[in-house]
Amino acid sequence: MVYKVSAQAITCGIFVQGGNISMTVTFVYGFNSVEERQSLWEELVFWNETTPVARHPWAIVGDFNQIIRITQHSNHQRELIDTSGVNDFNMAIQDSEVFEAQAKGLCYSWCNNNDENPISKKIDHAFINQHWASTFQDSYADFLEPQQSDHSPCLMCVPSLRLQVSKPFKFFHHVIDHPQYEEVVSAAWNCGSIQGTCQFKLMRSMKLLKHVLRRLNRRHYSGISKRVKAQAEKIAELQRSLLTNPSVNTARQEHQAREIWLTLIRAEEKFYRQKSRVQWMHLGDRNTPLFQRSVTQRASRNHIHFFKDDSGRKIVSNAEKKQHAAVYFQEVLGYTSLSTSPCSITQLQQLLPFRCLEVQIAALQKTVSEEEVKATVFALPFNKSPGPDGYSVEFLRASWNIVGGDVIAAVQEFFRNGRLLKDLNTTTIALIPKTPEACKLGEYRPISCCNLDMSGLDMNPAKSELFFGGYLAIQTEVLSGLSDIRIGAFPTRYLGLPLNPSKITFATLQPFLEKITNKLHSWTVKSLSFAGKVTLISSVIYGMVNFWSAVFVLPKRFYEKVDSLCSAFLWKNNTTSAVGARVAWDDICKPKAEGGLGIRLLAEFEVVFRVKQVWNFFANAGSLWVAWLQGNIFHRKSYWITEDSNRFSKTASFWFDAWTELGPLITYIGEEGPRKLQVRKDARVIESTRNGQWRMPGARSEEIQNFLMTLTTIAPPEVSRGRDIYLWRNATGTFTQTFSSKATWEQLRVHSVPVTWCKTVWFKQSVPKCAFVTWMAVQQRLPTRDRLRLWGMNVSSACVLCSNGIESHDHLFFGCSYSLEIWQDLASRIWQNPPLDLMAASTWILQPRQPTRSAATIIIKLILQSTIYLIWKERNSRIFTTTSTPSTSVKASIDRMICHGPIP
């Protein structure tokens, strides 16, 4: 059934009556120019926002005449790619809430058919929405050979039957919160009745416990999203009854139903966070939509639909895929072409002259204590499994009182006899695709504990490249053929970073910048609150940039671009412009104590990385990098005066290093210093001594006199005392042997005046979304009606909460009778006479009181933040949805939020 036909798209419904299958598919043929494609993007967004398509399986396939990222251009490593239209395309994808279907086959879908300068691009795409990925979990897009066309045909494969396979056990973290969890685990855990070694008892008990935990999860949490929805409908029904015909029994039922619902939504959030593997976002702020979208996208991306053998035959059935993988890895992991023979202990002792001291031997043979085992287990990262048995660290920590003794016994047994059970001595091979279109097992990177053996014993030609300088083309081809290693070209990548003989330019960083943009464009982050966006920027985006900055000197233009992208993402949910941002980015990039959000301005923070590289040059003299610089770049020249090439002497410079408290002497004494003291400008400190004593002429100026007096407190350098060490001077004047980026940034950055309300807004127990709205409120940056009118908008100035006054920050918090009733009633339960002004209240909360009650201070802070958040939410609800909530219901919501955590 055709729904709509336009110049660039045909949208139709497809129904398979026999299989009760229905889907919507939009077939696209995009125009050639960027301007003409704007109407196509608007049409796709229209289908998602204003039609029922978004609530059903929807796919978009066809020729878009546009790449999504520069890596979809065959020359992206050799030339600057035209990115016009890329940003518009990505924004359309995000606003349409679709993502790329897993693609198989060819990586490019179009070529220019130019024999002299062949160029290939991927301008044909297949996109799906979340409902499609959930309904057709085995679907994928297969890009085939073009045959007589210049485009690759796209075959959208939708298998009609999904084979049900038994999944291995996985411990779900939300089960820990069940009231009967400890009782169930304790009843099922009985190592004492099992005969065998400590390791066998532990593994047998864990295996028996799996059935009990599966049953507990299935009984109380299966279909968790449906349970949450059903419980919400039950609460709504009870509330209707309570507001129609109130009774004590109905009120109690509503309270009990809400308690169950709160337990379920917390379990739902934990469940989807665990499956999504999103580590940077914390629990407790209702991030379930983000986690659900991440789960859907991960499942679609990670599913292996088929393998191809060496002959190109597809292997589809699970049985054949298992057999194919087993044969492949037996040849890779279980076979070697090298003849080996065991080496005796005597032969090893002859080869290795090193012997441990008696003290070291005793330390190595010492029994592992219970405290060491427990500390090691509790130091493991969350949401990680110590082994392939499905139990995570959360299980061990939550059940340590029950299982801890048996875990300790098994570990100590291993250190006593050195034997490890087969059940423990196993690993899971995870296949990481090297390319998005990976089909053959050789195109996957196997990650496992035995990967070290695979990579370390023999050189892998498939992972190697040859680079030549000054060779003829025929010579490079001959050497490449003899070694069976392909010829590489710069820039190449190593450990995720580009290697290039020339300086990194903004053009070189284009793929990295695109990766950052894709993170911000992703439809999965569209549902994030402002607080969630701040977390994404500070944890993920800045983490990526800092990793590169610690290695390379990146151009300032790059940092400014990233800051611009992050600002636009935070305020406008795009990456084009942040015009109209409520708070300037420079103010956001201040410490929280100074009114910002604790984000560091990259364009300014990059100087810390440069300073750290200078520190490493002096302090890490044993590294290969420093040795190369000293031998080739800074030879017999001071680091501080070398311009472009030729630098450095082996130890401290007399004139340019700060080896006294006076700082660099060339600055303190002046350019005439070398002549007055008769010490060469490139001299080392040790060259100014003779026979273990300082060799200095008489003083000719006050500065030289002070310097000579300082020398009397410094022992002359001697070779017998060992190497000089460099110390880092902190802002307090103390010295340390380690470099701290945080402390250095505090010394270098421009400080602002601290704000008085910082601890009222930011504290450990705060709810992120409430704290963010409070942060904007205390700075009077919420878009109240008085501010909207100042911006030229034609809106009413009346307060929608009380209809009696002009809506402003001062009126809303708490000059309005509606907000005043809520704040005064709740705050007076903790402390009497709360102030009726927001700024006064933020200061009043922090005043010292006797007796000191930290719990009361935390509660009053939560009351203030929850009141501000829900008042602002109620204000928006009345304006945009014309629905209103009485103040008594808002007070009840605040009470529940403080007692049970944030609610949607």
From TrEMBL:
Coiled coil spans:
none
What positions does the domain Reverse transcriptase zinc-binding occupy? 739-823
Record InterPro entries: Endo/exonu/phosph_ase_sf (IPR036691), RVT-Znf (IPR026960)
Q: Which Pfam families match?
A: zf-RVT
* Superkingdom of origin organism: Eukaryota
Q: Where is the signal peptide?
A: none
Write the protein's name: Reverse transcriptase zinc-binding domain-containing protein
